[in-house]
Amino acid sequence: MTAPSTDNPSSTPSEPSSDNPTLALEGVGNRSTAGWIGILLILCLLSEEVAYAFNLVTPALPSMAGSFETSNIAWVSTLFTLSGAISAPLIGKLADRDGKKKWLLIATACMAAGSLIVAIAPTFSVVLVGRTVEGLGLAIVPITYSLMRDIFPKRMLAMAVSMTTAGIGVTTITGPVIAGVLIDNFGFRGVFFALALFPILLGALVMLVVPESPIRVKTSIDWIGGILLGLSIALLLYGIGEGGTWGWTSWKTLLCAIAAVAIFIGWARYEKRIENPLIDIAVLRGRAVVTTLVAQFTGQAVIVLQFVLLSFIVQTPIALGVTYGLGESASYMARLTTPAGVATVAMGLLVGIIAERRGARLPNWIGFALMAIGSVSLALSHKEFWPILLGYLVYAFGAGLISAAIPNLVIAAAPVRLQAVTASTVNVVGSVGSAVAVQIGFAILALNIATVADGTPIYAGIGYTTVYFVAAGLAIVGLAATLLMPHGRKPQSVEALT
Questions:
Q1: What are 216's strand-pairing partners?
Q2: Which residues contact 187 (CB under 8 A, 6 or more apart)?
Q3: What is the pLDDT of residues 160-195, one digit of tens each?
Q4: pTM for the complete prediction?
């Protein structure tokens, strides 16, 4: 999340402002180009911690489910994304007010502490506490971008942001490889010890080398809005997660749904009345922003479903007699994810070219079409290596296009004075999409349990087929939203100035 625009009268920056020409040209402090490159490397590596907290953990889910003998493993991913979705806007505003470096270090400490809690957790309940704390570290990425804008020389800013984005994309290639080595040799706890050590080392470097932003924004913090939104989403996800056990028409499930909707309506009304809301409801008006939000929600939902399902399919033993499963180790996942990661990064670079010539809408709808095709392919065949590789690769080409196109569509959808709040809203919606998708996916799988091995449910093949078709349906919804977009049809440089 970037600092609120100075066009907002309720959020005024103290001196020195970002309009200071010396600051804009030379950056903060007297540093050489080599010095700025060193700072950039530190911030890039720290940003990758957020991606690794997903890419390293997802392959470990089957191992964690077996270790704790739980069928509620979906909450390991859900609480992480939910905690981040709600806390990132709040932490972003605190960073604008108190100092971005300060809150970058706090978010980094939360990531390290949460990972350490999971690494030594004696029970599954403690694991969930640790992942919730770890989720607070999702604010690292938006704060990093905002801090770069404030401290880097103007001539280096575009390169810095681009390199950080590319670095996060590379984790899709390296993540499964690192996860495989850690899980196969040290178990899932090795993953979380690594996730705890990495931010500790980088946090020390940030403290010593990276300058603090001189910009401060006078703004209030919408604690009530954060609590209400978090409670409404948590109740919805809890109802979805337990719906298979309670029954989808039981009074408990219906009560969760009704309470979630009621609290959400109350939150929306409250946000309209306060001066500095968590999410500006006015931003949600207009077809451009709404269709972009739908695309972000569905895109992130499909991405998380694909990765989670792949982790279980690769590691499910063939000997169990189900109609899927490669029976391989976590390291084996790299054979599938590395080509897909290369495709994702390549498509991200291609979007820049297409968006400047034809607008960002074109690569976005092509991306959703490829996502739908890949998901249908995996729904029909997910037992042997080559069909899985082909389906996942087709999906990955689409995921790369969408991941790079959405930020461009956000820029085209909102005026300059609303860019920060719109980007924050899109980020929250994407995180909620991931959390909801995981809960729905595992709720469907829980309805199709073939057997139980060592206390761990083994899902029937029809469950995976159903969830893959759900992913395809979500991609089609995203495709429809993209085709309805009134923006993203002109060259990006033109729309960014409109």
A1: 14
A2: 63, 67
A3: 665 666 566 667 777 778 888 898 889 899 999 999
A4: 0.78
